[in-house]
């Protein structure tokens, strides 16, 4: 396993990753603080769903810094909670402390763990063509299985819709005319 990350010592790469995650949280906070509640009706807000974002806002209002800290461990919330914290105008010192602590505790295990997994797999597959072939076959089988599953799920919907649909040119629910 290599002992560098992005051309830096591993410890420095992890520290840079912590800084990146912390800065990302600040950007989200200031977007929420600047845009305010309009963020919920923005294009992205409509796509996520205003009701979902309002629930996140309520969580931030109820839990405060604990929500900001814990959000690092929950995909999706790690992006929505900082925005909502800005919208509700959480006091900046409290937000900064929770965000810094969450970034410092969440990021290194992912960086170092991911680094170890990637280099471990590369080591195994570099030494064993059979393991590489088995992985390729497993991925191909998984993709084929997912495609077949999705097709089977859609088939009953399409068939049911076709059988219940009125004949072409005929109105439903009103007098013919």
TrEMBL record:
The keyword Hydrolase does not apply. It is a multi-pass membrane protein. The keyword Transmembrane helix applies. Keywords: Cell membrane, Membrane, Transmembrane, Transmembrane helix. InterPro entries: DedA_domain (IPR051311), VTT_dom (IPR032816). It holds the Pfam family VTT_dom. Its main location: membrane. The chain crosses the membrane at residues 6-23, 95-118, 130-149. Residues 9-115 form the VTT domain. It comes from the Bacteria. It is found in: Cell membrane. Residues 155-177 are annotated as: Disordered. PANTHER family: ALKALINE PHOSPHATASE LIKE PROTEIN (PTHR42709), UNDECAPRENYL PHOSPHATE TRANSPORTER A (PTHR42709:SF6). Belongs to the DedA family. This is DedA family protein.
């Amino acid at each position: 396993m290599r002992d560098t990350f992005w051309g830096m010592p591993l410890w420095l790469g992890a520290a840079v990753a912590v800084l990146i995650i912390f800065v990302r949280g600040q950007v989200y906070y200031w977007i929420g603080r600047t845009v305010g509640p309009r963020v919920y009706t923005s294009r992205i807000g409509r796509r996520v769903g205003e009701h979902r974002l309002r629930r996140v806002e309520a969580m931030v209002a109820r839990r405060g810094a604990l929500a900001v800290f814990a959000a690092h461990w929950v995909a999706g919330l790690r992006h929505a909670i900082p925005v909502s914290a800005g919208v509700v105008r959480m006091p900046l010192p409290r937000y900064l402390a929770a965000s810094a602590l969450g970034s410092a505790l969440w990021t290194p295990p992912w960086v170092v763990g991911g680094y170890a997994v990637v280099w471990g797999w590369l080591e195994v597959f570099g030494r064993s063509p059979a393991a590489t072939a088995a992985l390729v076959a497993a991925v191909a089988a998984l993709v084929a299985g997912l495609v077949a599953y999705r097709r089977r799920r859609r088939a009953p919907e399409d068939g049911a819709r076709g059988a219940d649909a009125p004949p072409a040119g005929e109105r439903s629910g009103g007098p013919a005319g």
